[in-house]
Design a protein that fits this description.
mainly alpha; Arc Repressor Mutant, subunit A; Tetracycline Repressor, domain 2; 2 domains; 10 helices; elongated
Length: about 230
């Protein structure tokens, strides 16, 4: 039997390697894609079930049925219902608040930055599934302290940190005269929370113009805008 020269054998093997690597990588990539899609389907189904039934009444069986997966598949991604809810908050709510802390230092009035963020929050939360999720936490948080604690750490504390930084900048620039406002950043975001709760309870009786309420609120803090 004739042997191929060592260099020729090596060259032939290396010429086949990229193609073999591509074939091996393709199934792995497909598996990762399917896994990510399945996880996203479970999270979407969980949101619908939590909003429809509440945290306490939601069952993993119902989530699995809505997601079109076996119940055992859920445990490949989440250890329990609480961890699934936490993932839902991270996916749906946290990115909205994270944008506040990612804002660059304002070159214009602080009010413009606060107003832009608040308007975006109203747009992305009021009358959306995010708003339904926030209302669910408000309603059931007292019964499930661990859920409320997680929401505070991941969402509320981050939002207050961002708002406090903007308030302190507004005070330093002389745009905000009430220095104690920095102690209570909740005041700055109060219209957003009022709007979320109002929409679910009283909108059919007295529709709320959340953006106009925000404008009036900011007038009280920063002073009325001067018209030219």
């Amino acid at each position: 039997m004739t042997r191929k020269p060592a260099k020729a054998a090596i060259a032939q093997a290396t010429s086949r390697a990229p193609e073999a690597d591509e074939k091996a990588a393709a199934p792995a990539s497909n598996r990762a894609t399917r896994t990510a899609e399945r996880r996203a389907a479970i999270v979407d189904a969980a949101m619908e079930e939590f909003i429809a039934r509440g945290f306490a009444a939601t069952r993993l069986d119902d989530i699995a049925k809505r997601a079109g997966v076996a119940k055992g598949t859920i445990y490949l991604h989440f250890k329990d219902k609480e961890s699934m809810f936490e993932e839902l908050v991270r996916t749906v709510i946290v990115p909205v608040v994270a944008r506040l802390n990612a804002l660059p230092p304002p070159t214009g009035p602080v009010r413009d930055l606060v107003e832009a963020f608040a308007n975006n929050f109203l747009k992305e939360v009021i009358n959306t599934r995010r708003g339904d999720l926030v209302r669910l936490i408000v309603a059931e948080g007292p019964r499930f302290p661990s859920v409320a604690d997680f929401y505070y750490r991941e969402v509320v504390s981050r939002g207050m940190t961002g708002m406090r930084a903007l308030i302190e900048l507004g005070i330093a620039r002389g745009e905000i005269h009430e220095k104690n406002l920095a102690r209570f950043p909740q005041i700055l975001i109060a219209p957003a929370m009022i709007a979320v709760i109002w929409q679910s309870l009283f909108a059919q009786h007295a529709p709320l113009d959340a953006q106009e309420m925000l404008r009036v609120h900011l007038d009280l803090i920063f002073g009325e805008r001067r018209t030219t």
